[in-house]
Design goal:
With 390 residues, the protein is of the alpha/beta class. Helix content is 34%, strand content 15%. It is built from 13 helices and twelve strands. The strands form two sheets. It has a seven-stranded mixed β-sheet with strand order 1-7-6-5-4-2-3, sandwiched between helices. It has a five-stranded mixed β-sheet with strand order 8-9-12-11-10, with helices on one face. Helix 4 links the parallel strand 2 and strand 3. Bound molecules: pyridoxal-5'-phosphate.
Length: 390
């Protein structure tokens, strides 16, 4: 069997890379789509003589194709795939040792907060959760034990924006790692590695997969030594995705640009509709010019996406519940980033793992509603919200 040839797509634009980054047609059959290599092991000609594939926890050709594609579209040198976004987060945290400290943004995905506080604190890693709308405020919190800054931007669900380049400058000056969870923006809207981040992590379950049919995680980075360590952890701890899941993400990636364009267009229309609605108190959307960090969003992103949160006038949980169960197109569900629109209640769903006190302190109201605006017709979506808000 010939080896896979990896197409060099560096000189193409992102729209082309999304379709072609990864592998050439399958060398045995010419299949244009990367096959799903549903195998656990590979036959060797003699002990140790093989085609680069020994055992499927360590390597699988479908996964290799995806990892190469992820690296290319996120402008990195290396990609690594995991069974979920949190499995990728888990692998990154295993770079640390007991006693090490992490400074993380306070408006984090609930599951990330949970793995940090309920799992890794038990292993002696310390976390500080702080608002980072002003990146300069991080500096005073650093100690000689700080090894990592962990940010999500835009944040979930309050759509705060953190200045990636400013964080990268601080991280570099103190010789610590900057990790960016780029799930909300996707590589189509933002590439943290080009802004100086060391590691990008994705829940590919969301925009990368894009069809709400797979749970998957990814890490992308440039540093060779760090890649070797993470690859070692991927293989040693074994939170690897199956080949079918890798294939679904590969297929999802091919339409990321067209989907994201529509998510951005629909997001803008829905955000303005909500902002003009008499029953709506506040709308969180990064495209508004009066968003506190709109200028930074404009600087580091190529669009504003389809994630919107809002609070009704009166901040009543009861009214919010009526909207949450009153939409017909927006399905009440956790998750985001799929082609279909979703509505959710962070306080009881995605962010249920964060103690109420902590949530309220960070500005996440009990009545906050979060939308993942899909790629349906914008007018249909607006009418659906109109009838649900009443
Ligand atoms: C969903 C999500 C995760 C976790 O990813 P899973 O694939 O569900 O494990 C991490 N970060 C963000 C921002 C997310 O939305």
């Amino acid at each position: 069997m010939q080896q896979f040839k990896i197409m060099d797509t560096k000189n193409y634009s992102l729209d082309t890379q999304l379709i072609h980054a990864g592998v050439e047609p399958d060398p045995t059959t010419g299949a244009i789509m990367t096959p799903i290599y549903q195998t656990s092991t590979y036959v060797q000609e003699a002990p140790g003589v093989h085609k680069g594939y020994e055992y499927a926890r360590t390597q699988n050709p479908t996964r290799t194709a995806l990892q190469n594609a992820l690296a290319a579209i996120e402008k990195g040198s290396y990609g690594l795939s995991f069974g979920s976004g949190l499995a990728a987060t888990d692998a990154i945290m295993k770079l640390l040792n007991p006693g090490d400290e992490v400074i993380a943004t306070n408006d984090l995905y609930g599951g990330t907060y949970r793995i940090f506080t309920k799992v890794f604190e038990r292993y002696g890693i310390k976390f500080q959760f702080v608002g980072m709308s002003d990146a300069g405020s991080i500096e005073s919190l650093l100690t000689e034990k700080t090894k990592m800054i962990w940010i999500e931007t835009p944040t979930n669900p309050l759509l705060n924006i953190i200045d990636i380049a400013a964080c990268a400058e601080i991280a570099e000056r103190h010789n610590i790692l900057l990790v960016v969870d780029n799930t909300f923006a996707s590589p189509y809207l933002q590439n943290p590695l080009t802004l100086g981040a060391d590691i990008v992590v994705h829940s590919a379950t969301k925009y990368l997969g894009g069809h709400s049919d797979v749970v998957h995680g990814a890490i992308i980075l440039n540093d060779e030594a760090l890649h070797e360590q993470l690859k070692f952890i991927q293989n040693s701890c074994g939170a690897v995705p199956g080949p079918h899941d890798c294939w679904l993400v590969l297929r999802g990636i091919k339409t990321l640009h067209v989907r994201m364009q529509r998510h951005c267009e629909n997001g803008e229309k829905v955000a303005h509709f909500l902002r003009n609605h008499p029953k709506v108190e506040k709308v969180y959307w990064i495209g508004f010019e009066d968003h506190p960090n709109h200028d930074i969003a404009r600087k580091q992103m190529r669009g504003f996406g389809g994630m919107i949160s809002f609070v009704l006038k009166g901040d009543s949980l009861e009214d919010a519940m009526k909207v949450l169960s009153g939409t017909k197109l927006f399905a009440l569900a956790e998750s985001l980033g799929g082609v279909e629109s979703l509505i959710g209640h962070p306080a009881s769903m995605t962010h249920g793992a964060i103690p109420r006190e902590e949530r309220i302190k960070n500005g996440l109201a009990d009545s906050l509603i979060r939308l993942s605006v899909g790629i349906e017709d914008a007018n249909d979506l607006i009418e659906d919200l109109r009838q649900a808000i009443g």
